[in-house]
Amino acid sequence: MNREASDGTACAPPSVGEGTLSRRDFLCAVVGCAAAATLAGCSEFTHTSFFRKHLRELSKEEIARMLAELEKELSEQYGKPVTVGIDAARPGVQFAYALDLSRCVGCRRCVKACVNENNQGRDPAIEWIRVLEMDKDKGIDFEHANPYYEAEQVPRPGHFYMPVACHHCRDAPCVKSCPTGATWSDKDGIVVIDYDWCIGCRCCMAACPYGARRFNWTEPKVPAEEVNPQMHYLGNRPRPKGVVEKCTFCVHRVRAGRYPACVEVCPVGARKFGNLNDPNGEIRYVLENKRVFVLKNELSTRPRFYYFYGI
Amino acid sequence: MGSGTRDAIRAPGAGDPGDAIVQSRCDPRAAKSARNAVLLLLALALVLALASCSRAPAEELFAAGGVPEAPGSTLQVNVPPPPFSDGVFPCSSCHEPELKFNSKQRKLKIAHQEVELKHGTEARWCLDCHDAADRDQLHLANGEKIPFEESYRLCGQCHGEKFRDWRAGVHGRRTGNWDGEKQYLLCVHCHNSHAPRFAPIKPESAPVPPRRTEPTGGGTSK
After folding, report:
1. What is the DSSP letter of B133?
2. Which of residues 167-206 of B touch A (CB under 8 A)?
3. Which residues from chain B sit within 8 angstroms of residue A152, using beta carbons?
4. Which of A172, A270, B44, B85 has a Cα-to-Cα distance from A300 of 20 to 30 A?
5. Cα A93 to Cα A66: distance, rounded to the nearest angstrom
6. What whole-number distance in Å separates Cα of residue B136 and Cα of residue B89?
7. What is the DSSP string of B145-208?
8. In terms of DSSP H, where are the helices of B24-179?
9. Distance separating alpha carbons of residues A27 and A18, to the nearest angstrom
């Protein structure tokens, strides 16, 4: 046997009958079998699954290939053309959100619009926005806040409503607590999660003082006909079981210049969104002309989500 | 990609307008910690710097950005047509110009009985806003006739603060683009002009409370 052993997979297994088994041939056979076994065991061996395991930055071509694979996979899964975007933060843009507490009537239209827009699991139902009903006599008092209110009509007399979702903090406790760096604050201020890096330890959920993060205890189910096919890699693409998710300011919409879904659906116009760096924008108008506060200011999380009183 | 974007974590306090504004209204308790005191000073310095050099006057701030000018101006906003009830417009199809009109407050018996005026009822009557001579138009307090499409100018005469907020995009619902073209609505798309108070609505279903997982018998606790 004088086969060149430079390529492990090209080695033939030793034949038993020959009797003379060299050390070189033996090693060659072991490596070859191991390689074959690895390849056979990993039936979905793709470029993506291989390179994601390695700590290095993907090139543009690799990202494009990875997204194409993802789009193909999701399009087949849901039976309609799916696009997975990767729009990066625009330079000079600092996103912020303002919510008018004097207008919100607690109708939960934002909650449902968010579920539909961002492909949140329907069973068990995951909702990124939670609307708290509070007593006007008590003011903002989380001990007596009720997210489960049922009513024929809202607003109920004597109550006001405070929707809470991710505050996209500048000093985000969730980002600090993530052991794998799977969540970070992007350049335009959106706190995003890479679902492939999340290990599901839920440290971020414990760290978040706003209760804004949700965990997928089971495989999230989204009916194919209800799936929003316009997706973002760091946003509303379907999440696997065992990862954390939360509001992304509708990253797929806002990085394309559009308003988030909750802003557009709010029947009382209580939700405002824009660029903090734009002196003529809605957010700056609110900050400069209205009574504004942030939730749990004493924690110095420095949220990008402001509550204000429009009246 | 994950590792590529991770260097994006920003250093705190680097010239962020919204942060400076809110931090400068800081809760007094927060000043206890040294860190917050430093932040506060920084924010104060920022605010002072802004105030001393580059602060644009308010008129400049709100004149730009494709929003209409002050109530008297003829500048128009791109809004969808007013939400007329079926068959009610043009008004002149019933209200012929030569017909005499009665400007006395009274209960209507022949037509428009469904209109219930809950909008400063004691001091107001139809012809305060609707033009008697040209029923297809409205008129401002100064007598200027305006089409129904510009009714926001009429509302803005009394509700100046709301009108300012609306022009800035802060009162009322907006759809479209945060950095480009956006759709405005007329006041009357959300408020019935005859009874403008926002009517209560039925809420969407409540979230499902988290289910408790029953213990499966493992462990030592009884």
Report:
1. S
2. 168-180, 182, 190, 198, 200-206
3. 202
4. A270
5. 27
6. 8
7. EE-GGGHHHHHHHH-HHHHHHHHTT-SS--EEBTTS-EE---HHHHSBTTB-SPPPBPPPPPPP
8. 34-52, 58-63, 151-158, 160-167
9. 17
Give backbone dihedrals phi and psi of A67, rounded to 5 degrees, phi first.
Answer: -65, -40
**A289-292 long-range CB contacts below 8 Å, 24 or more apart?**
A289/B165, A289/B170, A290/B170, A292/A98, A292/B21, A292/B22, A292/B25
Q: How far is CA B142 from CA A201, B75, B76, B114, B222, in A?
A: 67, 17, 19, 29, 82
pLDDT value for A20: 52
Tell me the two tokens of residue A30.
Answer: 């072991």
Dist. CA A181–CA A193, nearest whole Å: 9
- Nearest Cα residue in chain B from A91: B8
pLDDT tens digit sequence for A237-247: 999 999 999 99
What's the CA dihedral at A33, A37, A40, A46 to 10 degrees?
-100
- CA dihedral over A198, A199, A203, A205, signed as positive or negative: positive
- Residue A292: which pLDDT band, with cuts at 50, 70 and 90? very high
User: What's residue B49's pLDDT?
Assistant: 52
Task: Report the C-alpha gap between B38 and B32 in whole angstroms.
Answer: 11
B212 has a chain A CB within 8 A of its CB: no
The answer to whether the complex's ipTM is over 0.85 is: no
**Which of A298-302, B62-66, B203-207 shows the lowest mean pLDDT across its residues?**
B62-66
Omega before residue A155 within 30° of 0, cis? yes
| CA atoms of B154 and A90, how far apart (whole Å) | 40
- Could you tell me the CA-to-CA distances from B114 to A30, A172, B108, B127 in Å, in that order? 90, 54, 9, 17
Integer Cα distance of A276 and B17 in angstroms: 7
Higher pLDDT pick, B20 / B139: B139
Q: Is B213 on the interface with A (CB under 8 A)?
A: no
Q: Are A255 and A238 in contact (CB under 8 A)?
A: no
Identify the residue whose tokens are 């308790």: B29
Q: Are B46 and A204 within 8 A, CB to CB?
A: no
Helix or strand holding residue A98 (H, E): strand A95-100
Give the whole-number percent of chain B exceeding pLDDT 70. Answer: 61
Q: Could you give the 3-state DSSP secondary structure of residue B125?
A: coil
* For B172, nearest residue in chain A (alpha carbons): A269
Residue B72 CB coordination number (10 Å): 12
Q: What residues of chain B lie within 8 A of the CB of A88, using their CB?
A: 5
CA distance A80 to chain B (A): 25
pLDDT digits (tens, 9 = 90+) for A145-158: 999 999 999 999 99
Task: Verify cis geometry, omega within 30 degrees of 0, for the bond prior to A209.
Answer: no
How many angstroms separate the CA of residue B105 from the nearest CA in chain A?
32
